């Protein structure tokens, strides 16, 4: 759940926080920390989404700007329709 921290380590950290900040301040600190982490997560997701949109826009632009590299065949050329055909 918390990476490599076990239950005992988390319990010790919580007890130290309770001793340092006191029972009145600890809920306020937890609420502030939770809000900060939520805001950081939203900002990170927004940044990730905007980068993905920019990459997608660049890919779309590069595929639209890329000229088609097809050679017209002899039968499709405008002069082929104007040439008279001779029976063999």
Protein model, in words:
- The chain has two helices and no strands.
- The chain has helices at about 5-65, 80.
Q: What integer value in Å does the Rg equal?
A: 34 Å
Number of strands: 0
Helical fraction equals: over 70%
How would you sum up the global shape?
rod-shaped
Biggest β-sheet description: none
- Beta-strand percent range: under 5%
Number of helices: 2
Structural class by sheet pairing and helices: mainly alpha
Unreliable residue stretches: none
Summarize the helix and strand pattern as letters. HH
User: Taking all residues together, what is the mean pLDDT?
Assistant: 82
Whole-Å distance between the termini?
A: 84 Å
Topology of this structure?
Elements lengths: L6 H59 L12 H5 L6
Entry keywords:
mainly alpha, 88 residues, rod-shaped
Write a compact overview of the structure shown.
This protein is an all-alpha fold.
């Amino acid at each position: 759940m918390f990476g490599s921290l076990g239950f005992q380590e988390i319990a010790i950290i919580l007890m130290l926080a309770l001793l340092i900040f006191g029972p009145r301040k600890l809920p306020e600190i937890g609420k502030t920390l939770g809000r900060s982490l939520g805001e950081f997560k939203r900002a990170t997701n927004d940044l990730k989404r905007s980068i993905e949109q920019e990459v997608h826009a660049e890919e779309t632009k590069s595929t639209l700007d890329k000229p088609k590299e097809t050679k017209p065949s002899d039968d499709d050329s405008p002069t082929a329709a104007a040439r008279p055909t001779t029976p063999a």
